[in-house]
Specification:
This protein is α+β, with helices and mostly antiparallel strands. Helices cover 17% and strands 34% of the residues.
Length: 577
């Protein structure tokens, strides 16, 4: 307590990560977090491992847990703060016993970060599709919304931190609001009305000594509810959940969503060994004599299945173009049942643009009903992920990122070296990587292919025209790149906004991906991730550099030198000899 106000601070090995900051809630005009005594609580240790489908396939959970009781005259109730201290950060949430219905009108939690930190942030709190800015915390204008995760390079570059949240259920999502100093105020997306005991989501401060530790942080997954075994009897290995790559016409010159064009895209998907074809907005108005859209869609599903390609379909949350939206609970049920009867594999749901309490309930309802019909989900026009994909393994991706749909003047080389250490800390993201279009001419083909490896998305929907891909030297690499990973290692000389060097393993194969910003540079990359075994290497990149390693025996004792031009990239596949 400080002057009667409940506060917390976070230290890591003696270094300040969060300076003294306020805690509390405003519930029905009652302020929880002012006055009251703190009572000691029992401390327990938690250590678990569980299957995961993020930057690696097994997540580790090691934390010290305490429930701190706060005494006070709050409607006759004491309340508690759950705290968990991990090896890689701190999380807390509020639990308030309550009878009847009450409304949380404001959360009082703040985050006062070290003033000399370097902050990486974006301000789109609806779709989370803003461009990132680097600044000192106090330079962010007062009142400016800041989306999560909010990444910090700690003073003197003594590590990294990120503010996030997890277990957002029956609640509203949160973002931060700048105060014009180095303090950021929690802001909910609207009021939250609850009946009975009140429990907030977890507020998370993850900490990493380096970028590899920051990226491999499992706190969001660990603090989210595990899957319901009745819906997902084998968890992430439930038979009908099949991650994979997809073709998609929307960003191509041949984008027409017609039955004929979609058959062509299924043909090309088969030739590229891509298992899915996403049919976007427009199929809902397909008509032929004596046939409605579902009958025509069934013909496409059957046609594609003969080529080992399955179909995903697009649908809107609101009413759209004269077609009812999935916000209608009755229609959502009938739509998903129709999808299953037709043989559709998954649904891309668009235009939510909110993380209000009611919208959070929709995300959960849609995921649950889709699971009952054995359908996979990709949320677009959506809020940030915050652990939902652990609870709902059928959620294979979620947009909430400035991806290639922004075919504009985005500084793609710089943007792509930022988001692995900002947005993707929250979880998977449907960036729709890989394009050969003119608007990505600031990047090379190797850079574009490297985004497929770097940006986690179990439903890996590609922006490239598969017709162009079939003629590209990148096709052999695209064929081998998986959409899920067993292990991820962020390597030197990675630096936010400058260069991202990432090695990812699938089975016994390692994939090395490098993304460069607009400044040409020469880098040396350690191959320590290979260990002591001998590997062969197949590179995609500058022929002068890569000819020195192509086909040669390489082990973890080696380094490779790579010369990167503006917007350049590098991709290599390592296989055991």
């Amino acid at each position: 307590m400080s002057k009667g106000v409940l506060q917390y601070k976070v230290l890591n090995k003696g270094q300040t990560v969060i300076e003294p900051s306020r805690m509390g809630l405003l519930v029905d005009s009652v302020e929880y977090g002012r006055s009251g005594a703190l009572f000691p609580s029992k401390i327990t240790n938690i250590q678990k491992r569980f299957a995961w489908r993020g930057v690696h396939n097994v997540a580790s959970y090691h934390a010290t847990s305490a429930t701190v009781k706060v005494g006070g005259k709050y409607a006759g109730n004491d309340w508690t703060i759950d705290v968990q201290v991990f090896d890689e950060g701190v999380a807390f949430r509020y639990i308030i016993p309550h009878r009847g219905t009450a409304t949380v009108t404001r959360e009082l939690t703040s985050f006062t970060v070290p003033g000399q930190s370097e902050a990486w942030w974006q301000g789109d709190i609806q779709n989370y599709e803003g461009e990132y800015t680097k600044s000192k915390p106090s330079a962010i204008k007062k009142g400016q919304p800041v989306g999560l995760p909010f990444t910090l390079v700690l003073p003197q570059k003594q590590g990294y931190a990120a503010i996030a949240e997890a277990d957002v259920n029956n609640y509203a999502g949160m973002h931060l609001q700048a105060t014009g100093s180095n303090t950021f105020q929690t802001t909910l997306d609207g009021d939250v009305t609850l009946t009975g005991n009140m429990k907030t989501p977890w507020r998370i401060i993850s900490i990493g000594q380096d970028l590899n530790a920051l990226v491999n942080n499992d706190m969001i997954a660990a603090l989210s509810p595990k899957p319901d075994p009745a819906l997902f009897p084998k968890g992430f290995d439930t038979e009908w959940i099949k991650p994979g790559k997809s073709v998609w016409s929307w960003m191509t010159a041949n984008r027409a969503v017609t039955p004929e064009n979609m058959r062509k895209f299924s043909d090309m998907a088969a030739r590229c060994d891509i298992p899915y074809n996403l049919v976007d907005d427009g199929w809902g108005k397909w008509r032929e004599p004596g046939k409605d859209e579902w009958q025509i869609l069934k013909e496409l599903v059957d046609y594609s299945a003969a080529k080992n390609v399955k179909i995903w379909v697009w649908a809107a949350y609101p009413d759209n173009n004269g077609i009812r939206g999935l916000k209608d609970s009755v229609y959502l049920l009938s739509f998903f049942k129709k999808c299953r009867e037709t043989g559709v594999a998954g649904v891309k749901i668009d235009f939510m643009s909110s993380e209000s309490q009611s919208m959070v309930e929709f995300y959960n309802r849609a995921s649950r009903e889709a699971a009952l019909q054995q359908l996979m989900i990709d949320f677009h026009g959506a809020s940030k992920p915050s652990g939902q994909s652990r609870t709902w393994p059928n959620e294979l991706s979620r947009e909430a990122v400035r991806g290639l749909e922004y075919s504009d003047d985005t500084d793609w080389p710089t943007h792509n070296t930022i988001i692995p250490f900002t947005r993707y800390l929250a979880g998977h993201g449907d960036y729709t990587p890989l394009s050969t279009a003119k608007f990505v001419s600031s990047t090379t083909l190797a850079h574009q292919v490297a985004t497929m490896i770097t940006f986690t998305s179990p439903f890996l929907c590609l922006g490239v025209d598969p017709g162009d891909l079939l003629k590209s030297e990148a096709l052999p690499f695209v064929r081998t790149i998986p959409s899920v990973w067993d292990k991820t290692v962020v390597l030197p000389p990675s630096a936010i906004g400058e260069v991202c060097v990432m090695a990812r393993r699938s089975g016994t194969k390692w994939f090395l991906a490098v993304l460069n910003n607009k400044q040409a540079k020469k880098i040396s990359v350690p191959l320590s991730f290979l260990g002591t075994k001998s590997f062969s290497c197949q590179p995609l990149g500058d022929k002068v550099i890569t000819s020195r390693i192509s086909g040669k025996a390489i082990s973890g004792k080696s380094n490779i030198a790579i010369a990167l031009n503006s917007g350049d990239g590098f991709v290599a596949v390592f296989e055991r000899r």
